């Protein structure tokens, strides 16, 4: 049997990339955007794309609905313009819009209506489950990709662009964070192969680890302490949850990105199948993060509340008071887990018969 090169871009992805390439012609101006409270994958994909598109003679800049996370400032540079502060005006200057790491236009927050109204080619590069209202009409999406950064890497390879050290660093940050440091179930052999290629381009893995995971402000540990005091567990069903009240970030001088990883603490409890993280945003809105293990598909559960994401990681924004939202979601999560467990038991029994 012939050996398959894991770095080869498969035919399906190459075919999906072609329509995007047709719009990314030299001389065009491209606005890049990603979801509210952007993460390592969204930021890494954007920072890499600005530099890769420049190699094609395409000018690109970033316009996000929320400020660029300070923890990913190291991905920026004099060659990457972040025009997020200009909002819709910076979007309207572009000949092409390119949205990354989003399957639903609503995740563009305050920019969503402007994006809907733009009369320019709208491209999407994403690895989430499709929704009814994508942010564009020309879509390069693959849920088997470990991160949007993997798909951007494939674009670079397909176009014959150079993976410079700054590009490699941005793509490595995307893959590193979306795989949870190469620990989550989306860590494929190809994820490691692409990461190895990026390391060969000059990425320092220890420096990346320190920047992403070992440079937290003291306030984050104080917030974690408070959150763990709210920890509740239903051992019988494998459900665990924590909460953060409104004003917690301000109390410890933190930003939204400092909440990354908190939900992994309840998920790490032995026997947990579904972990929930409730964050009171104030103004009658609660953000809920869903994480799961094994057989539980949290994307399906999150869609009950107008949210979504991946099978093992999803989120939703739910109107209401923290106590009320938590009581409702926990009750429905218990029913969801019980139903899922019963379904598996019935399937196993049928197979045994």
Task: Please explain how this structure is put together.
With 353 residues, the chain is of the alpha/beta class. The chain contains 13 helices and 11 strands. The chain has helices at residues 11-23, 40-55, 88-92, 112-117, 148-159, 165-178, 189-200, 205-213, 218-228, 248-251, 264-267, 298-302, 322-352; strands spanning 29-33, 59-62, 96-100, 122-126, 138-141, 232-234, 239-244, 274-282, 285-292, 308-309, 313-319. It has a 6-stranded mixed β-sheet with strand order 6-7-8-9-11-10. α4 links the parallel β3 and β4. The radius of gyration is 21 Å and the shape is globular.
Helix content estimate: 40-55%
**What is the first-to-last residue Cα distance?**
38 Å
Q: What's the arrangement of strands in the largest beta sheet?
A: 6-7-8-9-11-10
Number of strands: 11
Number of helices: 13
Unreliable stretches, pLDDT < 50, 5 or more residues?
347-352
- What is the global morphology? globular
Sheet-strand content, in percent, reads 15-25%
Mean pLDDT: 93
Biggest sheet descriptor: 6 strands, mixed
* Element pattern in H and E: HEHEHEHEEHHHHHEEHHEEHEEH
Return the structural class. Answer: alpha/beta
* Cα Rg: 21 Å
Q: Oligomerization state of this entry? A: single chain
Task: List key phrases describing it.
single chain; 353 residues; alpha/beta; six-stranded mixed sheet; five-stranded parallel sheet; 13 helices; 40% helix; 16% strand; disordered C terminus
Topology overview:
Elements: H1 11-23, E1 29-33, H2 40-55, E2 59-62, H3 88-92, E3 96-100, H4 112-117, E4 122-126, E5 138-141, H5 148-159, H6 165-178, H7 189-200, H8 205-213, H9 218-228, E6 232-234, E7 239-244, H10 248-251, H11 264-267, E8 274-282, E9 285-292, H12 298-302, E10 308-309, E11 313-319, H13 322-352
């Amino acid at each position: 049997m012939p050996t398959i090169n894991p770095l080869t871009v498969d035919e399906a992805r190459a075919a999906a990339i072609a329509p995007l390439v047709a719009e990314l012609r030299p001389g065009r101006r491209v606005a890049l955007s990603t979801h509210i409270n952007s993460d390592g994958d969204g930021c890494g994909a954007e920072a890499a794309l600005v530099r890769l598109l420049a190699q094609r003679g395409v000018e690109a800049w970033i316009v996000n609905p929320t400020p660029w996370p300070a923890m990913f400032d190291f991905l920026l540079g004099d060659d990457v313009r972040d025009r997020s502060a200009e909002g819709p005006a910076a979007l309207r200057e572009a000949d092409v819009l390119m949205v990354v790491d989003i399957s639903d236009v609503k995740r563009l927050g305050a920019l969503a209506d402007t994006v809907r109204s733009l009369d320019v080619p709208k491209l999407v590069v994403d690895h989430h489950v499709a929704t009814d209202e994508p942010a564009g009409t020309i879509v390069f999406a693959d849920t088997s990709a470990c991160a949007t950064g993997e798909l951007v890497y494939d674009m670079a390879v397909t176009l014959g662009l150079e993976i410079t050290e700054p590009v490699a660093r941005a793509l490595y940050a995307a893959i590193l964070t979306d795989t949870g440091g190469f620990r989550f179930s989306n860590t494929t052999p190809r994820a490691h192969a692409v990461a190895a290629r990026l390391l060969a381009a000059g990425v320092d893995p220890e420096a990346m680890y320190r920047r992403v995971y070992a440079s937290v402000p003291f306030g984050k540990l104080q917030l974690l302490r408070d959150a763990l005091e709210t920890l509740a567990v239903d051992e019988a069903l494998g459900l665990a949850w924590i909460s953060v009240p409104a004003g917690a970030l301000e109390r410890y001088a933190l930003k939204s990105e400092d909440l990354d990883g908190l939900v992994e603490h309840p998920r790490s409890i032995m026997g947990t199948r579904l972990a929930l993280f409730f964050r009171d945003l104030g103004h009658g809105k609660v953000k809920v993060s869903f994480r799961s293990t094994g057989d539980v598909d949290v994307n399906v559960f999150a869609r009950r509340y107008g949210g979504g994401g991946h099978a093992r990681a999803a989120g939703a924004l739910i109107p209401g008071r923290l106590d009320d939202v938590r009581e409702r979601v926990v009750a429905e999560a218990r029913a969801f887990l019980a139903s899922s467990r019963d379904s598996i038991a019935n399937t196993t029994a049928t197979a045994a018969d």
